[in-house]
Amino acid sequence: MSRPTVAIIGRPNVGKSTLFNRLVGKRLALVDDQPGVTRDRREGDAELLGIPFRIIDTAGFEDEDAASLPGRMRAQTEAAVREADVALFMVDARAGVTPLDEEVARWLRSADVPVVLLANKAEGRAAEPGILEAMALGLGDPVPFSAEHGEGIADLFEALLPHIDREEEEEAEDDSPDAPLKLAVVGRPNAGKSTLINRLIGQDRLITGPEAGITRDSIAIEWEWEDFEGNMRPVRLIDTAGMRKRAKVEEKLEKLSVADTLRSIDFAEVVVLLLDATRGLEVQDLKIADKVLQEGRALVIALNKWDVAENASSLFNGVKGALDEGLAQVKGVPLLTVSAATGKGLDTLIKVAFETREAWSRRITTGQLNRWFERALEANPPPAPGGKRIKPRYVTQAKTRPPSFILFGTRVDLLPQSYERYLVNSMRKEFGFGAVPVRLTMRPSKNPYDRE
């Protein structure tokens, strides 16, 4: 049974994202004094006094033309209310009821969804007039609350309980191949990340437009992909804010957005770096790719806008060559061509993402490892720097995701990096790790005089 859904509604800067963060127990939504920080609707798993539910943080409700950015944001808010079991309408008790609050109330009264009226920032006597004004909105008595301090939780729970008290079977996440693929899409601003996700899921779930930097929060969307055999495979798609050069990131909000994107990389299994084919590969793209690999995540690179790319063959070969040179630690990262606008290549992209996760999660038995290890040492014996003999003894896998191995032996900490690369590359080829990050740690014998 699916969890009940609560949508937080209100004009800009009344504290919706602060409440969202409190209910999910994490700082997921960006919060700032500047109004209009939240643009796309954001979902999370929340719990209130032991009752679990889904919570949706929405953009501030504004009365703007539908074609404008605020108008497109409002459409996302309206879509969230249509999905919800209950709308949590938040007003600012200290500011009092505004004409925009009254407009939102009129809209909610006509909507086919129960409404709980929440008077936020209600701590202290200064909020009392605003609480009284909220009673005139025609949505019942307001619940006095402080999202910042958590005051009024019990009253909020009592108001929401009739709408969220539902038995549910918890979904267990695991590392099995049937678990949802956690797929983050990253890249520079305007590479087409939100457009790509909208095309995949078949709806305008994320706000898009010619303006650079529309996406600020990292937005997770549950989806199912039908593979080439007709099987439905669960995917958690994560749209992220565009990442510019650090020197150009000056606004506080953009710094928060970039930090949010970096956290999304941490939570992902596979990261798609989306490039703009009309602009080619830039230094910032390589820095993003390097960051993904340093974090141990599986990387897939996609050239978007391929339908309008010029000199396609030379462009592809040029990008591939630059990647091989710029990502020296990992050769052969998958490079695909896609069009978010037309949908071309997107099924192949998801297929490669699943295959890459499988390699990223692969475990090799100690027996298989050491049979390969003996052959690798025989084909290319380790050097003897300074005349000191190095004796690797055996290797074992410490963990997966990414595949991580420990090499035991005498003086193995003196092995040059070139020999470490030889072992890792040989391992990649032998066990089909492809271009996923592979970690190899040297563990020398505790006794420096250990000898056979």
Automatic annotation (TrEMBL):
One Pfam family here: MMR_HSR1
UniProtKB keywords: GTP-binding, Nucleotide-binding, Repeat, Ribosome biogenesis
Biological process terms in GO annotation: ribosome biogenesis
Annotated GTP 1 binding sites: 10-17, 57-61, 120-123
EngA-type G domain mapped to chain residues: 4-168, 181-361
InterPro entries: G_ENGA (IPR031166), GTP-bd (IPR006073), GTPase_Der (IPR016484), KH_dom-like (IPR032859), KH_dom-like_a/b (IPR015946), P-loop_NTPase (IPR027417), Small_GTP-bd (IPR005225)
Residues involved in GTP 2 binding: 187-194, 239-243, 304-307
Entry GO MF terms: GTP binding
Family named by the database record: Belongs to the TRAFAC class TrmE-Era-EngA-EngB-Septin-like GTPase superfamily. EngA (Der) GTPase family.
Job description of the protein: GTPase that plays an essential role in the late steps of ribosome biogenesis.
Alphabetized PANTHER family for the sequence: GTPASE DER
Assembly and binders: Associates with the 50S ribosomal subunit.
HAMAP family found in the cross-reference section: GTPase_Der
Designated name of the protein: GTPase Der
UniProt source species: Sphingomonas koreensis
